[in-house]
Amino acid sequence: MANLPDWLRRPIGKASDISTVQRIIKQRQIHTICEEGRCPNRGECYAQGTATFLLMGPVCTRACAFCQVDKGHAPMPLDVEEPQKIAESVQLLGLRYVVLTSVARDDLPDQGAGWFAKTMAAIRRLNPGTQIEVLTPDFWGGASGIDGQQQRIATVVEANPACYNHNVETVRRLQGPVRRGAKYERSLHVLHVVKALNPTLPTKSGLMLGHGETEAEIVETLHDLRAVDCDRLTLGQYMRPSLAHLPVQKYWTPDEFERLGAIAREMGFAHVRSGPLVRSSYHAGESE
Fold it and tell me: Above pLDDT 70, what percent of the chain?
């Protein structure tokens, strides 16, 4: 692809704002997806004192072809102090809305579902007024199959997050090359199970555009998400983290993102963020 379009270039942000968050997370040896995933918005978010915490270490058991997070079959052992460290960081940063995400941990018996619940409980002990959004993996793995997946999802739902996010990431046709180890129907099933367990809990999903999908395929995906009562949507531009990752097939323009956002709202999504630099957790705590 050609050089990065102007609309994807943005200032890094003030070093002092960035260093405050970086200092807190490094002192506690915890992780954020902002850093591990090299998010283009981290300067803006850090300046606002916000961050999306990455649970269970920086090494993922899967190898999605778009993701900057390190991959490996032998992730680090869980840090038993991580939930408390994250709770203290939330308190120091004065966060009123927190997003918790994680690497995939197919090596753990419950895939990390209990760790989400434990971290949420720790945050609430120190920050009772803070809302918590979760962005989980699909919790699929091991011999337990779909029953095990539903049990793990239930563990997180019962912890009462403010929003349950699980990304389909791309359209049905491109799942194989983009999301190694994940499946489109399985991700839709995650969102379906959440609503079956708690119909009042807002659900959210997102796509990264630029892998070669067509507008018709995007619209089809939005219909599929609405069919499982997904309430909230993010649409953003895929940006290649390195030469080892999938190349960008197309840079969608701001006008195209605006049009897709309008289509999503017409379909009934209650909350839509659609723009080149939008990511799953971008301005997550803000109303439409």
Answer: 79
Nearest to 66 by CA among 277, 278, 251, 245: 245
Residue with tokens 């720790």: 122
Question: Who has greater pLDDT, 239 or 285?
Answer: 239
pTM of the entire structure? 0.88
Whole-angstrom CA distances from 267 to 104, 216, 218, 222, 270 are 31, 14, 13, 8, 9
Two tokens, residue 93: 């940063």
Tell me what pLDDT residue 63 has: 53
Question: Chain-centre distance of CA 190, in angstroms?
Answer: 14
Which structural domains are found in the chain, ordered by start?
A: 16-274 (3.20.20.70)
DSSP-assigned letter for residue 100: E
Tokens of 76: 């680090």
- Name the residue with tokens 């070669």: 212
